[in-house]
């Protein structure tokens, strides 16, 4: 496999070398008014159908594009055309590191945003808790945060952080997320979306608009 050594100027599928073999990426660049910012987006749980084409992930991509950011969506190991097998969030975090390192090489002077939905929010949080990255991200964006026991043991991200949680989430217990946030020394900006389910059914446009409003306001 020949690894892509540049960031394409238009939407393109490409492959990079990951820790478990090749990783499938889908990159996009705004057609106009592009900023020197790029957002990496982590998809939900691969064992429950999560891929880079997930509707919430696609909504994040559209919001970032409307803000003038390049985007990188990718399939974890064992998903789509990415090599490997599911690795309990640990391997998926390693995949995210590989994508981030590639993005840094191809967009060396860009601000890097890191986002994730559900299991992807957990993976991106793990990534943002790693010492080498805690303060080097422009922002962390979490769309619903599964309450894995490990969260309480991880160092908190030190970059700006936005967390959006549906109040009628049928997969992640919303109140557990709200309670967890109150225990943090560096809590996120928390947006509660009433009458909103886990997959944001009927709420994707509202989610997109909230993201655009918050990120326009919070831009470093």
Q: Could you give the topology of this structure?
A:
Layout: E1 12-18, E2 21-28, E3 37-42, H1 55-66, E4 70-74, H2 90-106, E5 111-117, H3 119-129, E6 139-143, E7 161-166, H4 174-182, E8 189-193, H5 204-218
Parallel strand pairs: 3-4, 3-5, 5-6, 6-7, 7-8
Antiparallel strand pairs: 1-2, 2-4
Number of helices: 5
Helical proportion?
A: 25-40%
Strand segment tally? 8
Strand order of the largest sheet: 1-2-4-3-5-6-7-8
Q: What's the alpha carbon Rg, rounded to whole Å?
A: 16 Å
Kindly estimate the percentage of residues that lie in beta strands according to DSSP. 15-25%
CATH level-3 fold name? Rossmann fold
Mean pLDDT: 94
Low-pLDDT runs of 5+ residues are none
Q: What does the main sheet amount to?
A: 8 strands, mixed
Distance from N terminus to C terminus (CA atoms, Å) equals: 37 Å
Q: Any idea how many domains?
A: 1
The CATH architecture category equals: 3-Layer(aba) Sandwich
Spell the H/E element sequence.
Answer: EEEHEHEHEEHEH
Q: Provide the structure class.
A: alpha/beta
By CATH's scheme, which homologous superfamily applies?
A: Alpha/Beta hydrolase fold, catalytic domain
**CATH C-level:** Alpha Beta
Shape descriptor: globular
Descriptive notes:
The relative contact order is 0.14. The model has no long low-confidence stretch (mean pLDDT 94). This protein has an 8-stranded mixed sheet with strand order 1-2-4-3-5-6-7-8, with helices on both faces. The protein has 5 helices and 8 strands. By secondary structure, the chain is α/β, with parallel strands linked by helices. Helix 1 packs across helix 5 (204-218) and helix 2 packs across helix 3.
């Amino acid at each position: 496999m020949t690894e892509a050594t540049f960031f394409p100027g238009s939407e393109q599928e490409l492959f990079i070398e990951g820790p478990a073999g090749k990783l499938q990426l889908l990159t996009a660049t705004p057609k106009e008014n592009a900023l020197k910012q790029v957002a990496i987006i982590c998809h939900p749980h691969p064992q429950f159908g999560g891929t880079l084409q997930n509707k919430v992930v696609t909504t994040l991509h559209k919001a970032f594009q409307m803000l003038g950011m390049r985007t990188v969506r990718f399939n974890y190991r064992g998903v789509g055309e990415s090599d490997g097998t599911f690795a309990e969030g640990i391997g998926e975090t390693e995949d995210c590191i590989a994508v981030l390192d590639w993005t840094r090489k191809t967009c060396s002077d860009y601000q890097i945003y890191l986002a994730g939905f559900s299991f992807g929010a957990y993976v991106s949080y793990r990534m943002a808790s790693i010492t080498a990255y805690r303060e080097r991200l422009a922002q962390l964006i979490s769309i619903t945060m599964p309450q894995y026991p490990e969260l309480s043991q991880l160092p908190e991200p030190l970059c700006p952080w936005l967390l959006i949680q549906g109040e009628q989430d049928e997969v992640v217990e919303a109140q557990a997320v709200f309670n967890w946030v109150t225990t943090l020394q560096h809590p996120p900006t928390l947006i509660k979306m009433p009458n909103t389910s886990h997959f944001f059914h009927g709420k994707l446009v509202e989610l997109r608009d909230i993201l655009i409003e918050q990120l326009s306001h919070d831009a470093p």
